[in-house]
Amino acid sequence: MSTPPIIGPEALPALAERLQLAPPSRLFVLADANTARDCYPHLVPHLPAHELLTIAAGEAHKTLATCTDVWAWLTQHEADRHALLVCLGGGVVTDLGGFCAATYKRGLRCVGVPTTLLAQVDAAVGGKTGVDFQGFKNHIGVFQEPEAVFMEPAFLGTLPAGELRSGYAEVIKHALIADAAAFAELRGLAVAAVPDWTPIIRHSVAIKEKIVAQDPHESGPRKLLNFGHTVGHALESYLLARPGRAVRHGEAVAAGLLCESWLATQRGLLSADELAQVREVVGASFAPLAFAESEIDEIAAYARHDKKNRGDIIKCTLLTGIGHGIFDQAVTVAEIAASLRAYLSR
User: Fold this and answer.
1) Contact status, residue 267 vs residue 332, Cβ threshold 8 Å
2) What is the pLDDT of residues 223-266, one digit of tens each?
3) Residue 133: helix, strand or coil by DSSP?
4) Angle at the Cα of 146 (from 145 to 151), degrees rounded to 5?
5) Are 169 and 287 in contact (CB under 8 A)?
């Protein structure tokens, strides 16, 4: 990304200014059914003439089939490589829209306007794009930074409580891997009672940007940002494939934070007191996910397809203390299964 994200009430006016200074040949807006209804009306006054495409909302639609619809829409409207795609939405829209832009005619200009806490603190920052494939999270994608990202925290007022909590899981993750003092401040925080998320968003974005700057393509330290996601993605993928049991990304990550913290304690990397602190903060905002012990082995097997793996070795990020992580830790499917059993029995 050429410039840092613009965060605050100045974000949408800044987008309008950018469009005036560097006008695209054509302007396109990608939204989902929710953001088209709740956020698009607030964006329109800041945009010149444009075309809008609304896709179905939800992780179940983060697929190549939806990409085909987006590519067909761009083609129908004769978008050239000097056009600009504005991705207005949460993690699904920013991931999928960014991927469509990166691959359409080998690269279309793209900016992000993330509307959920999850997208503002995580998904829209760092240039990861992609879609799910054959039940596996973000299985197809590329690294492609958007030209710019514009974050309006007021959009968070459109979110249901569960969606706000989903993004909060990534806030917890950032503090756990990089800032013990920030984690301490999360103890006792009530997600529903936060009056202004702007300072928290700025802090989480700063942590992620610092890590990504060291390792844009995830060959080293950027893997720290996957803490909670090895087990979390396995849970999310498994439940998404079962009708009526899909969970939000952040809910699965929250469970992954607990499981992977337990693994770190089993290896002597994290103290029992620190594990208790993680459980306290996560447990204050997230109810346990519902799955049966008889499903654990099948859930754990999903980790064999994790993107961090090398050959048959599952690579995981673990904590070495509150505020510190270590990446490329080899774990077995059996260990992941044990962490899931510990999660159920805690």
Assistant:
1) no
2) 999 999 999 999 999 999 999 999 999 999 999 999 999 999 99
3) strand
4) 120
5) no
